[in-house]
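W.,

You were right to be curious about this one. When I first looked at the sequence I had no strong expectations either way, so I just let the prediction run and decided to look at it fresh. Below is the sequence, 439 residues in total, followed by the output.
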Amino acid sequence: MQIFWFLLYNILIVPLLFVGFHIAALFNHKIRRGIQGRGKLLQDIENAFPVLSPDEKRILFHCASLGEFEQVKPILKRIVEVIPQCKRIVTFFSPSGYEHVGQCPYPDLAIYLPFDSLRAIRQFLNRIRPSAVIISKHDIWPNLVWALHSRRIPIFLINATMPKDSLLLKPILRSFYRSVFSRLNFVAPASETDRQLFSNLLSPAQQVEVIGDTRFDQVYFRSQESFQKKLLPQDLVSGHVTVCLGSTWPSDEIHLFPAVIELFKEFPNLLLIIVPHEPSPKRVEEIRRFFENTKLNVKTFSQIQEEESNSYPAVIIVDRIGILANLYSYSQIAYVGGSFGPGVHNVMEPAACGNTVLFGPRILNSPEAQKLVELGAGAVVNSKQEVYQTLRKLLADPSATKKKGQIAARFIEENLGATEAIINKISSMMAKKGNRNIK
């Protein structure tokens, strides 16, 4: 079946994907930017590594987007500390990750992953010649995996998740994906439930171990950094109870905004930070208009940074990306968006900062959200009435709210350690494997 799936994928699926991406690029600027960025991929590699020593270790990390990059950051940081001579290459599928790596010092090179054709993958691997490849969470590309396996390059899948209703587990697709996943050398599922689901795609001989989730390490380390950063004036936050509404969608805001406007009447020391999921000028203006008929002082984050004023706002609308995790260090209560829409976003970031965490009803995509509810450190709100009632109760009892936040922070701390375990696995397997970087 392996040969059958290999031929079917390359003769039929790859051409269809190639045409589909280019048609979609005509209507989607994000896909268009991704295609354009891949056009200079090989030149970017040549510029970064004009000479590749056969003795030099190079580890390739693949991330679908920015969220997956956050998951590999603690591993990158640790490799810098323990194997400083090892080159670290990070690839992205989406512009959302590639364009927002920013000034992160850990990668030696950040580039797009090439399109998954045999020719593109072979050219890419001939230039990079990785000693090992770590894939974060789920972005598995068949030709990449098959090519790495043929070259005896160890492949690790970390923080691996598998929804119970995943299409990968459907009968025909399961056979295809088994031919791909069975070539992975080591799989680290995020939970025991994920491990059981992955067993449908893996062979008994493969190394599979639940060793934790590096996201816990990353959010913990970032929370420690956040408390040292000064994003907001101390005079603005002191004396206030701060609620942060993070990664909000319009479907969240129709429940949140009416409730918090009412709460300002009862709790005048309330400070509200709103961080929209997509902080475009249009979205920021939409949010501002929602509050324009109230007497609340509303400013954007940029205005606070740029103005020298003693007139501090009651509502801050964040019009920048990449700082939400840091802003949670200013709040005691956080609502995490997406949970009235596609599914809740990252609840671990506010938990690491000691917030009591609220979210809408769609949390099946997040075992961490479910665990916070179980521990009493998080709560589901299903309507604007429940938002109002839950927030009012938390604001009225700061002592109880603080204890819930401490429970949330302890949940993160108790799950640290995955990074070190994965580093040990990588070091051990790289020492055993003899790479065959063939053309």
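Here's what jumped out at me. The mean pLDDT is 91. And, maybe more interesting for your project: The first strand starts at residue 58 and ends at 63.

Coffee later to discuss?

I.
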